[in-house]
Structures are given as C-alpha cells and as structure tokens.
Amino acid sequence: MNASEAIAIRRAERRDIPALGRLGASLMRIHHAFDRRRFLAPGDHPETGYAQFLGPQLESDHALVLVAERTTPGQRGELVGYVYAAIEPRSFKELRDQAGFIHDLLVADDARGSGVGPQLLDAGVAWLREQGMPRVMLWTAVPNTKARGLFESKGFTSTMIEMTREL
C-alpha cells in the first residue's frame, strides 16, 4: 500500500455483492488447492454462488459482513478483503454453547501484509463482543500457516482438530 492509499473498514452493502462473490470465490480456490478432496470444488461460476450465499447475510440480524475498501485520491474504492461473522446457536452436535463465529476472512493478494486482515478480524470480534457473545470461534485450514499465525497473535487457541478419512 502506498502513502496515498487508505483502507476503510465498513459494513458491506448490496452494491458490494459482486465483489464479495469474487473474494469468496478466491477463498474457495485457496482452500480447494489445500486439499481437493476435503474442500468444495469452486466449479465454473463460484463468484455467482458465493455472492448468492453472502448476499442474504447482509440482511441478517445474527450476521455481519464487513469489507475493507482501499481508496486513492480521485478514484472509487476497491474492495480488498472481507470478514463474515455470525452468531451461532448452542450445538449439542458440536458440544458448545452459543458462540460467535468468524466464518470467513479473506484479504486480496495485493493487499496482504498491509494490516487489512488484523483490522477485519478485530472489527468482526468487536461486533461479536457487542452482541454479548462469550467467545469467538473460527476454523482454519491446517496448511494456512499465515492465517493461523494471525489468529494466534490475536489470542485464538486450538481447541479441536478436524480429522478426515476418504472412503
């Protein structure tokens, strides 16, 4: 990021849905590359599918989608990241009480290392705290060492390990 650029974290709006679809599709591709059997294949039009998934979350009282918008003087902003957080009810299946979840956190390649990820994570956690959540949970892919480093630097600790066996 150069000196004339600024990053603003704001609530996602309907006009952001196409960009959110592109960012979400990137998240899908990254995870699918980690493990093609475990993670959903992006398919032919993941941008459309992810936009259709995230769009309704913008209207939910129990979810929050924030975007990181990079602006330069005289130019329209460009979305370079997003966080999707939600309040999840008690789950006997997962043996946990109601909790806040950070479901998605993605920063575009050209904005990584600029502090966007920590800003988005902090904003998502702050919203969950404001909603009275006693804890925030998230899942991260084992090979995603940079994301794990970020989460650990923000106080997240491992509590469960997902194990998969292909049949």
Explain what this protein looks like in three dimensions.
The protein has helices at 17-34, 46-54, 116-130, 145-153; strands at residues 6-11, 63-71, 78-88, 99-107, 136-138. 31% of the residues lie in helices and 23% in strands. It has a single domain (6-153), classed as Gcn5-related N-acetyltransferase (GNAT) (Aminopeptidase), CATH 3.40.630. Helix 1 packs across helix 2. The chain is globular. The protein contains four helices and five strands. It is an alpha+beta fold and 167 residues long. The protein has a five-stranded mixed beta sheet with strand order 1-2-3-4-5. The N and C termini lie far apart (46 Å). The longest helix is centred in the first third of the chain and has 18 residues, at 17-34.
Keywords, please?
167 residues; globular; 5 strands; 31% helix; Aminopeptidase; 4 helices; alpha+beta
Give a summary of the structure in a few sentences:
By secondary structure, this protein is of the alpha+beta class. Helices cover 31% and strands 23% of the residues.
Could you give the topology of this structure?
Blueprint: E1 6-11, H1 17-34, H2 46-54, E2 63-71, E3 78-88, E4 99-107, H3 116-130, E5 136-138, H4 145-153
Parallel strand pairs: 4-5
Antiparallel strand pairs: 1-2, 2-3, 3-4
One letter per element, helices H and strands E, the order comes to EHHEEEHEH
Q: Quote the beta fraction.
A: 15-25%
For CATH, the homologous superfamily is named as Gcn5-related N-acetyltransferase (GNAT)
Please give the count of helices: 4
Task: Report the average pLDDT across residues.
Answer: 95
Main sheet characteristics: 5 strands, mixed
